[in-house]
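User: Design a sequence. Structure:
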């Protein structure tokens, strides 16, 4: 089972509280134990010092007199008082009877006694075999001017263990309360956090709808968000790449457009200047210059018209309104329009459409496509050439094919002929009056109507330009 961000936050908070609680508990236990033992040591030091002063004033000698004194002092201080001779014999002990005192082992080797005689004070913690419990001992030498022995005050460390036990109970109680509070607060915090995350994920998904299905199986909000942002980053990278490509194409387009416009504009200006300088009066040059002026003005108008069409297509402002229409009617109209141009070049046009062919297309766009394709075929057909126009169904679309028997297009150029201002033969294209934009307009209009366009070689020579458009639903 995979935990979500809310469950993981809650679990992490609880583990953090547990670790902090254990570390804090160990630290407090150590500090508390050390503090209590230091306090007991100070008390025992005071008791031992007091016993030493009493021993200096007392005239008691031997266990018979000293042991009762040790008993009274032990009862008064609530501690174990032991009086030890210089040779290690126990003279009195508040926790032992007189018989037990006489039978107890020699204490001369006890660490606290050794340290007291050697350093003036001995402090030691150890298990007492006499009273069978852990004890804290403080020993001081007594006797002036010469040392007569040591007095020792001791307390069991059971009260330390009791205090530590109480501390444990307090820590457990407060730990449970803190744990409950942590669960409540972490649940509330994770709810608020994941709520914000889910809103962010929702917005990210709305921007990257394609990533939603891919990441919907994950229960981790962070992974969902990361997936959405990764998808957005990929989309943004693609968009940036596309924008850069469009920017490059736009620069090339502007350069080509400037070049194409510059030529007729320069001819018009030069002819106008020549005519103004007096050539208009010349019976031979005047008419020639005026015809050239008119021809280049027409070419300039055609280029500008095509540029405007492309600009509208690029901006999505072509406002196409597809309807169901009969293809043969539009083919016949396009051929009739271009027949004078074909006759002028000695080119024949043959039409073989399906009489019942119905398309779903914009009338004006379809007419513009047909005119461009047929006119392009006329321009590149040789004198006496022949153009065949056919239509056939192709994978749920209607394919319109315009075939000429001109020089054809090299294979390396076929993928470029629909680019703006691209010409296979620049010199020939200008001779026949092409703007270099007709096929780009055909491609743009066709794709705007959810169709496709392409080119194939004709046999034995020539080219076949085809356009595939959606069939009418009522065909």
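Assistant: Done.
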């Amino acid at each position: 089972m995979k935990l979500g961000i809310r469950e993981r936050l809650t679990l992490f908070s609880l583990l953090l509280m547990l670790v902090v609680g254990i570390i804090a508990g160990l630290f407090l236990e150590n500090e508390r134990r050390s503090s209590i033992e230091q306090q007991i040591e100070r008390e025992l030091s005071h008791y031992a010092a007091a016993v030493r002063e009493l021993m200096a004033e007392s005239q008691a000698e031997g266990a018979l007199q000293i042991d009762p004194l040790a008993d009274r002092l032990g009862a008064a201080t609530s501690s174990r008082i032991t009086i030890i001779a210089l040779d290690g014999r126990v003279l009195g002990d508040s926790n032992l009877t007189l018989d037990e005192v006489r039978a107890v082992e020699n204490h001369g080797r006890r660490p606290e006694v050794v340290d007291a005689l050697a350093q003036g004070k001995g402090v030691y913690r150890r298990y007492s075999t006499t009273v069978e419990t852990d004890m804290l001992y403080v020993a001081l030498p007594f006797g002036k001017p010469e040392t007569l022995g040591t007095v020792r005050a001791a307390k069991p460390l059971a009260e330390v263990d009791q205090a530590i036990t109480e501390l444990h109970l307090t820590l457990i109680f407060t730990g449970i309360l803190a744990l409950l509070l942590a669960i409540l607060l972490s649940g509330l915090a994770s709810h608020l956090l994941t709520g914000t995350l889910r809103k962010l994920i929702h917005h990210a998904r709305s921007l990257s709808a394609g990533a939603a299905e891919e990441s919907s199986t994950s229960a981790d909000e962070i992974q969902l968000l990361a997936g959405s942002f990764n998808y957005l980053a990929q989309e943004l990278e693609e968009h940036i790449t596309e924008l850069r490509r469009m920017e490059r194409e736009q620069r090339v387009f502007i350069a080509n457009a400037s070049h194409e416009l510059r030529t007729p504009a320069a001819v018009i200006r030069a002819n106008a200047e020549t005519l103004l300088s007096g050539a208009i009066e010349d019976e031979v040059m005047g008419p020639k210059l005026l015809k050239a002026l008119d021809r280049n003005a027409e070419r300039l108008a055609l280029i500008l018209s095509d540029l405007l069409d492309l600009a509208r297509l690029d901006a999505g402002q072509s406002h196409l309104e597809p309807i169901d229409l009969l293809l043969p009617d539009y083919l016949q109209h396009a051929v009739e329009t271009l027949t004078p141009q074909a006759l002028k070049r000695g080119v024949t046009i043959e039409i073989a459409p399906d009489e019942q062919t119905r398309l779903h297309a914009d009338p004006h766009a379809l007419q513009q496509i047909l005119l461009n394709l047929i006119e392009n075929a006329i321009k590149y057909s040789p004198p006496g050439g022949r153009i065949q126009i056919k239509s056939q169904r192709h994978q749920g679309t209607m394919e319109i094919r315009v075939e000429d028997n001109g020089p054809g297009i090299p294979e390396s150029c076929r993928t470029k002929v629909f680019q703006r201002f691209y010409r296979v033969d620049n010199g020939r294209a200008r001779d026949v009056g092409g703007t270099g934009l007709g096929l780009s307009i055909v491609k743009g209009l066709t794709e705007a109507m959810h169709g496709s366009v392409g080119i194939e070689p004709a046999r034995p020579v020539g080219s076949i330009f085809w356009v595939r458009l959606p069939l009418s639903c009522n065909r």
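The mean pLDDT is 81. The CA atoms of residues 333 and 407 lie 27 Å apart.
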